[in-house]
Amino acid sequence: MLAVSSRITIRDVSRATGVSVSTVSNALNAPERVAPETRRKVVEAADRLGYRPNRAARALPKGRTFTIGYCIPAGRDGFFLDTFLHQVTERASDADMDILLFTAHRGQTEVDTFREIIRRGAVDGFVLSGTTHDDQRVDLLLESRMPFVAFGRTDLGSTHSWVDVDGRAGTRAAVEHLVDTGHRRIALIAWPEGSISGDDRVAGFVEGLEAAGIEHDPALLVRAENDLAAGREAASHLLDADLPPSAIVTVQDILAAGAIAELNRRGLRAGPDVAVTGFDDSPPALYSTPALTSVRQPIEEIGRTIVEFLIHDLEEGDGIPRTRLVDPELVVRESSGGP
Amino acid sequence: MLAVSSRITIRDVSRATGVSVSTVSNALNAPERVAPETRRKVVEAADRLGYRPNRAARALPKGRTFTIGYCIPAGRDGFFLDTFLHQVTERASDADMDILLFTAHRGQTEVDTFREIIRRGAVDGFVLSGTTHDDQRVDLLLESRMPFVAFGRTDLGSTHSWVDVDGRAGTRAAVEHLVDTGHRRIALIAWPEGSISGDDRVAGFVEGLEAAGIEHDPALLVRAENDLAAGREAASHLLDADLPPSAIVTVQDILAAGAIAELNRRGLRAGPDVAVTGFDDSPPALYSTPALTSVRQPIEEIGRTIVEFLIHDLEEGDGIPRTRLVDPELVVRESSGGP
DNA sequence: ATCGGTCCGTAAAACGTTTTAGGTCGGGAT
DNA sequence: ATCCCGACCTAAAACGTTTTACGGACCGAT
After folding, report:
1. Nearest CA of chain A to the CA of B62: how many Å?
2. Residues in chain B, pLDDT under 50
3. B180/B263 same-domain check
4. A147 and A182, same domain (yes or no)
5. Domain check: are B37 and B158 in the same one?
6. How far apart are CA B178 and CA B245, in angstroms?
7. What domain count does chain B have?
8. What is the DSSP string of A75-143?
9. Distance from CA of A278 to the nearest CA of B (A)
10. Do A80 and A153 share a domain, yes or no?
């Protein structure tokens, strides 16, 4: 369909007020350069006509697009994409910026796509998520001097802005909670070694045990991929041991769901018989029976902070890396003997 | 931070090849207008320099932004936003378009924000979701002649493009499945009257009963808001009846989760004792114990079709409304006595 | 009276493309 | 020889803004 609806341009406002195009622009962007009466006339006419500067036309001379890029991850990133994106978008909107959503082109790597977006001059900066140790996107962005803020740390953590959850504090809190309710034999189902947040969560587990003066039994730490079946299997392995644990901590809700399923299969109840805790406080945690005790990441705060950092960088242009580690919160529910 | 990285413009390619700017543009956009040898030279140089036309600059003379708008809903829309957005973005990317994500400005209605986006000439068309009976956004878009495709029907269904799930067929399939496994006393937990998809799902329930020759007992249809507690309460009400149901159909997984929680509280087991089915096949359905029988909406297909319709409209410009009702699929799990 | 300075407004250039309207050249038909 | 046409290329205008540089008017000070 043809772009109809004859859009209102600055020229229409100029005609309506009898004042030049430049004066209209000045009246709207730099009010101090224009006589109060003229400004009033212009603003009134612009309002009446419903004039809004064309995005693309504005971007050209400004050298800014008023757009933030976000690459939507290929594999589902978890359940908070929803919340995260909403928060990011809302905050961006407060600063009059929009979000450009893109995804890796077919047959291209994600980094290639980032490069494309940069070359096209499509955005002023990026929000990253799902960072890895040596994240290639970070290399590219640093190299091209593109402002960005990452959700998650990387190996280059000190040279760029990031916001992350203190996962270590999270699992540690879970362990402390279990110790407080009388558990001594506490197991952990973790991911395979090598991911930043995974290793961090393991560290918190160990730390929590140490703080409670409990010796860490290596047999009680098993690794599993992040899916239901793997969680089930890992739990089964733990429960078959000579001295099975009385509590199972996991690094992700799905693993916890797997553990609960395995308990059910054996006629045991999560909570009364074996305590289980998850991580992320994703919807399944809340809706499962029994409801899952889980470590909640403050996604809203994270999204808000990320945009705040990015906008600051864009406006002030100082390029100084800013970082923030936010505290997660343990939400106690039935699966660990809570209410 | 200043936009550094001295971007490559068409002028650079022009200089590198010794050919005019217009020829470069033609070589890249309308190859037939340029001699083969020249074209080769231009393409080679463009490749070598990594030239990509600037988005904003291109939008101006083209009168197209190569962008599709999507307003991220305020309340969480469900769990498929993730999947849906990914699909939409990927398909858009196939057609060389990006997604502009926005959200209602503070203190403005969603419609106001749509109007803003249109006035700014920020997008070529929209993808809508979460439509209501008399959706104001639809009115606005039709009025401004903006191409768009809705996920979900509206009262103006015949005048615009939409893609929707046949919810009626979904609940009907759930009822049929329950009848097949021997149930006769089947209840429904539905939403309050008035939503398109909710009423549709109720209709499917009634239809299913009729088809099986079962008389519909009004006492077995209760209404509840879409949250866990409400589902719990509704189930409790049903189970307290003189003739409690042997199976409970729900119009959403969260209501089903509530029902299961209530069953558990009473020492009953979902599946063996009372069958329960959900709708949406959201993550909680899969991860709950027992795993939930649910009606799965083919989100990938929906997202793909929506973009397909929109791109077609944009390219062909015929503006003819296209519609598609896709069939959902019943996924049988333990909560209804499945494997 | 002339000068200098402010205030207010405007014309014009610039941003990086695409597209329109020619322009030049060579060759085939007359 | 002239004319016409097609093939190839280019200059220039256009898209809708912002911004720079300048000009006129007015005013107070010399």
Report:
1. 11
2. 1-4
3. yes
4. no
5. no
6. 12
7. 3
8. S---S-HHHHHHHHHHHHHHTT-EEEEE-PPTTS-HHHHHHHHHHTT--SEEEEES--TT-HHHHHHHH
9. 13
10. yes
**A67-71, strands of its sheet edge to edge:** A323-326, A161-165, A148-151, A125-129, A67-71, A98-102, B98-102, B67-71, B125-129, B148-151, B161-165, B323-326
Does A91 share its domain with A176?
no
Q: Is residue B281 domain-shared with residue B180, that is, in the same domain?
A: yes
Which of A177-183's residues contact partners 24+ apart within 8 Å by CB, and which partners?
Answer: A177/A277, A177/A293, A177/A330, A177/A332, A177/A336, A178/A247, A178/A249, A178/A275, A178/A277, A178/A336, A179/A208, A179/A212, A179/A214, A181/A275, A181/A336, A181/A337, A183/A246, A183/A247, A183/A275
Residue A261: half-sphere exposure toward Cβ, Cα within 13 Å: 26
A9 in contact with nucleic chain D (CB within 7 A): yes
- CATH assignment of the domain containing B194: 3.40.50.2300
DSSP H or E segment with residue B120? none
Interface check for A219 against chain B (CB to CB < 8 A): the answer is: no
Domain annotation covers residue A61: no
Which segments within chain A are labelled E, that is strand? Answer: 67-71, 98-102, 125-129, 148-151, 161-165, 186-190, 221-223, 247-250, 275-280, 293-296, 323-326, 329-331
Query: Which nucleotides of strand D lie within 7 A of protein CB?
Result: 7-20
Where residue B33 sits, what CATH number does that domain have? 1.10.260.40
Side by side, the strands of the sheet bearing A247-250 are A221-223, A186-190, A247-250, A275-280, A293-296, A329-331
Shared-domain flag, residues A171 and A161: no
Mean pLDDT value of segment A266-272: 92
Position A77 pLDDT exceeds 70: no
Contact status of A120 with chain B (Cβ, < 8 Å): yes
Interacting residues of B141 by C-beta distance below 8 A, sequence separation 6+: B114, B126, B128, B148, B160
Answer whether residue B2 is part of any domain. Answer: no
Assess if residue A34 is contained within a domain.
Answer: yes
Distance between CA B79 and CA A79 in Å, rounded? 7
Q: Which residues are CB-neighbours of B88 under 8 A, at least 6 positions away?
A: B68, B70, B99, B127, B303, B306, B307
Structure tokens at B320: 């003819």
Same domain, B219 and B277: yes
| CA B65/CA B45 separation, integer angstroms | 26
Question: Strand A329-331 to strand A293-296: parallel, antiparallel, or no bridges (unpaired)?
Answer: antiparallel
Helices and strands, counts by H and E, chain B:
13, 12
Q: Which of B304, B290, B301 is nearest to B328 (CA)?
A: B301
Which pLDDT tens digit goes with each residue over A204-252?
A: 999 999 999 999 999 999 999 998 899 999 999 999 999 999 999 999 9
Please say if the pLDDT value at position A3 is more than 70. no
Q: How far apart are CA B167 and CA B173, in angstroms?
A: 10
Question: Nearest nt (C1') to B10 (CA)?
Answer: C16
pLDDT for the residue B3? 37
> How do residues A97-142 score in pLDDT, each as one tens digit?
999 999 988 888 999 999 999 999 999 999 999 899 999 999 999 9
Domain with B138, as residue range(s), is: 67-165+299-327
Q: In the structure, how many helices (H) and strands (E) does chain A have?
A: 13, 12
Give the nearest chain B residue to A83 (CA atoms). Answer: B76
CA of A59 to C1' of C5 (A): 35
Flag whether A58 is in a domain. Answer: no
